[in-house]
Amino acid sequence: MNMNVPDVIPFTRRSPVAVETGITILVVTSDMQYADRIAQPLQSAGYTVKRSPNTEAALHTLAAIPTDVCLLGPLPESESLVGFTSQVTHRGWATQVLQLIPDNQLSDGSYQQRGIDICPWPGPTSLLQTIVSTAAQKSRLCAENRRLKRQIANRSVRDMIGRSPAMQTLRQQVQWQAEQSGAVLLCGESGVGLETAAQAIHESSRRAHRPFIKIDCRVLSAEALDLELWGPVTPVGAPKPTTRLQIADGGTLFLDGIECVALPVQRRLLALIRQQRCEHPITGEPIRYDVRVIACTTVKLQAKVDAGLFRSDLFEAFRAGVVDVPTLRERAEDVPSLAEHFLQRIALKEGRPMRVLTLDALNLLREHHWPGNIREMENVITRACAMDWGSRLTVPMIEPWLAKGPHSEELAGTPGMTLAEMERKLIEATFERYEGNREFTAKALQIGIRTLSGKLREYGYPPRGGPGSNRIAHPSTVAAAPERTFTENESRAA
Fold first, then answer.
1. How many CB atoms lie within 10 A of CB 309?
2. Spatial separation of the C-alpha atoms in residues 51 and 77, rounded to whole Å
3. Within its chain, how far is the Cα of 353 from the centroid?
4. Which residues of 217-256 are buried (b: 16+ CB within 10 A; e: fewer)?
5. pLDDT digit string (tens) for 160-175?
6. Can the peptide bond before residue 211 be classed as cis, meaning omega within 30 degrees of 0?
7. Which of 248, 319, 464, 465 is most buried as measured by Cβ atoms within 10 A of its Cβ?
C-alpha cells in the first residue's frame, strides 16, 4: 500500500444547511433546563427561540407571535398533545409541530399512532438543525399556499372595483394588513365601502375560516355595548350567556363607528387589543380571547382625542394599522367600472340582459360630485333601473336622482326630526316628483304599492282610485317608465 495515498479520502466537512433568517421556534416543556439545552444549538444556528411551560400558554404565544416550528418536550401526563395539535390545525396556523423523543424510545409505536411528527433528541446537533430547518421551510410553504388561496377566493377584494391609483394603493394596504395580526383602523367618508375593506382584510388573513362579527357602535349605548361584548356580570360558576367575543373567537371583531364608544368601554377594548384579555369584574381573573379588532370611523379621531372624548392610548394602539379608504371623488376614473358592476348585479338579480349607459349618461355620472360616494351611486343606478325596463339608461332617466331639486333640503331633514317624520317627507317628495303616480312612486321607493297606499292613507290622502288620488305622470318625467301590471289582490288592497 502506498502510504502517500490513504485508503479513505478525507473529504472536507460539509457546513450545516443554510438557515433561513427570521425563523421562530417555540419550545413547549415543563422542564426549563431541558428547554435551555435544546434552545442553545438552535439559537447558535440563528433561530429565534421562545419557551412555554404548557400547551395552554403555547396556544396564546402562537396566537400572538407567528411561529414556524413548535417543539414539544417533556410535559405532564395531563397535557393532551393530540388536542394541542388539533387546536393548531383548527385555528389555521401553518406552524409545524414536532415531538422530541429520545433515541431509545423511537421504537415505541404509540408515538406514530398520535399522528405527530417526531424528532430524536438528545442527538446530533446537525440532525436537529436539519429537521427543524426542513419543518420551517414546510411551514413557510404552507403559509404562502394558504395566503394565495385566500387571495384567489377572496370575494370582498373582487368587490373592490376599480383600477385607479387610489384603489391599487388600497388593495396593497388591505393585503399588507391581512398578513399582520394587530388592530386595524379604517378611515373614510360614509359610503366609501369601509365594511367591504374590513371583510377583505378578514378574508385575506389566516382567520378567514373563523367568524367575522360586526357590531354597530352608533346604535348601542355604553351598557348595551358592554353586554354585547363581555356579557352580564355573573357569580363565579354560574352559567353565562354567549357573548360576541366568544362567537368571534379565532376570528375578527368589526366595530363600526368606533368614535361612538364610551370611555369606560374604550378602556376594556384597549386591554383586549394589547393583551388579548380582560379582567373578570368580580374576581379580577384574566379572561383570554383570540380576536383581531378592526374598527372604522367617518370622523377625525384626533379631534375626538383633543376634546377628551377618545382615549389617546387607544388611538395609539390603532395607529400602526390605519388605512385611509379613498372617496369616489378621488377615483373618478373608476366610475365606469363601478357603473358596469352595479348594472351587472341588477341584471343578474332580475334575470335579464344587462342595460348599458349612453355616453352622455356616463359623462353625467363622471361629473357628479358624489357626496354619498359609492352607496349614493349604487342607489342612483338602482332607482333608474327600477323606473325603466329598456336596454339603455339615458340622461333623463338618471338626472332626476342627481339634480339638487327644491326638495333636497326637505329630504335632508332638520335636527330633531323623528324617523317617522323623515319617512313621510321622503314618501311625499317622491310622490310629488312622479305627480301622484303611485305605481312609479312605489317602484322608486322599492316598496309594494299596498305599503305605499297604506302610508298615504295615514297622511290623509284619498284612497287609491278616489278623486285626486292618482294623477297621470308628466311624460317628460316618467316617459321611459314601464307599465306595471299589479295583481287583483294588490289593487283591491290598495
1. 15
2. 19
3. 32
4. beebeeeebbbbbbeeeeeeeeeeeebbbbebbbbbbbbb
5. 888 899 999 998 899 8
6. no
7. 248
**Looking at the structure, do residues 192 and 272 belong to the same domain, yes or no?**
yes
Question: Model confidence at 152, in pLDDT bands (50, 70, 90)?
Answer: low
The one-character DSSP state at 464 is: T
pLDDT band, residue 148 (cuts 50/70/90): confident
The set of cell numbers assigned to 75 is 410535559
> Are the C-beta atoms of 131 and 119 separated by less than 8 Å?
yes
List residues bridging with 213 in a β-sheet. 253
pTM of the model: 0.62
**Residue 257 grid coordinates:** 363607528
Strand partners, 215: 255
DSSP alpha helices (H): ranges in 434-460?
Answer: 438-445, 449-458
Residue-wise pLDDT tens digits, 457-471: 888 888 776 544 554
Give yes or no for residue 472 having a pLDDT over 50: no
Range of the domain at 412: 404-494
State the chain's mean pLDDT as an integer.
80
Scan for cell 388593495, then name that residue. 171
Phi, psi of 178 (to 5 degrees): -65, -30
Q: Do 69 and 215 share a structural domain?
A: no
Answer whether residue 17 is part of any domain.
no
C-alpha cell at 401: 336622482
- Give yes or no: residues 428 and 392 share one domain: no
Containing 49, the helix (H) or strand (E) segment is strand 48-52
CA-wise closest residue to 157 among 181, 177, 174: 174
DSSP character string of 5-32: S-SS--PPPPPPPPPPTT-EEEEE-S-H
